[in-house]
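Standup, Tuesday
Yesterday: got the pipeline producing structure tokens again.
Today: sanity-check two examples.
Blockers: none.

Example 1:
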Amino acid sequence: MTSPDDAVRPGATYWDTYWRSDEASTLFAPALREALGAFWTAFFEMRFAPGAPLKMIDLACGDGDVLRHALNVAGPRSGEFVGLDYSAAAVKKLSSIDQRLVGIAASAESAPFDDGAFAVVTSQFGIEYAGAGAFTEAARLVAPGGALALAMHLDAGALYNECRSSLAATEEVLAARLLPLTGSVFRIGYDVLRGTQGPATLRQAEALLRPATEQAKDTLRRFGERVAGGKIVGLLQGLGQIYTRLQAYEPAEALRWVENADTELRAYAGRLRAMLDAAVDDATLADIVAELEASGLALERNDTLSAGPGNEPAARILVGVRDAR
């Protein structure tokens, strides 16, 4: 990492784990992805009009979702497209998108750029994690005549409610110690296969695992199999597949799978907690608006983005502009 350590960057390892995984490709439900795409396309079409400077930075950029929309609108035109994120794993992914992209591993609270360095400053479900100072910092980067656009987690919105359910379900599975107990069963199972322990010891370990397995199944009955992005049902399927064919797997391979699954599930819960904590409520929104206006931006938009069959509010949208003078 080129940015501060995890003691300074709370939860950084959660996001490094996330951006190294394939989970990022399924971050949003299709309806929300479509609504966000329409918003960003319209925004960039306005800001990237012919003759306008193509100089933008996306704060807490993740793997470049907003930057992709910017590049699509910009077409073949050259410009400066910067993605900043405190996760080096996220920044590394940017290089595979387009050679025009520049990735910077840094905190959104202290971007290493001069005042007014960008014609466009954006963030999608990211800047709200960085702390109150990140909004003043974002406004500082907006050039005269430039614009700031933010899509933020909305307190009690559709995505918030989905995350809350997923966290509750995940915490139930973690509290039941499904994966640590499975690891014990696997280890003893291999001992039995090697003849170093007897079947009775394995039956005792299986008896300890059974309540955790039943807890996970009950969690799925109450929350639905799609909860937590299908992670819990996937875990049960994976564990069952390995255990019923234990001889087909090398012990180190099977035990490493359990250990990695436990690490990833804990990281997932950490990200969900961070998302819920970062969600913008009315009081926080008022503070953000005051910061942006005090920094010289005039708000053009302050509302919610809706998505899904029920047209549920899913994101808080802020768009501000700086006078060209």
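Example 2:
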Amino acid sequence: MSHVLYKAQDILIESMKLVLKKIPKARLLLVGDGENRKMLQIMCKDLGIEDKVIFSGYVKGGKEVFDMLDKSDLFVLPSRQEGLPRAMLEAFARGLPCIGSHVGGIPELLEDKFMVPPNNAEALSNLLIKVLSDSNLMASMSQINLEKSRSYSKEHFEKERLEYYKRILND
């Protein structure tokens, strides 16, 4: 039995088929593993893009994830549902431009123009093509995300927590 693809890897794969028509050198790296991997690999084969999609398999986290992010040009999270996505915050901290869907906590992180409706491969592919085709836009997104990541640092949250406790004690 397959689980729901909450991260919408299927939508990302569908959009990749459309992206490759305009940007044939594009590649997609899907990080992680799970019981849906085989189904997603078959989907890639059926779409004729199996040589353009790389499945990393299980990744421990930490340095291994950061190394993958550092080798990437763009981070995409077209989730169907989401909290505040830690993976996107990690991509921000590595200075990656990011695209996501308009669900959960993603709108807290991204400007509207860098989000698409969930389950919309065509809208996602159009945004991917726009971003990947504009190096100035990617550089601007990267800088904005890197700066924004600082407000999600451990030190920032500890400072906010202390200020909150002081306010409570003074009430």
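Quick observation on example 2: The two ends are 53 Å apart (CA to CA). The chain has one domain: 9-170.
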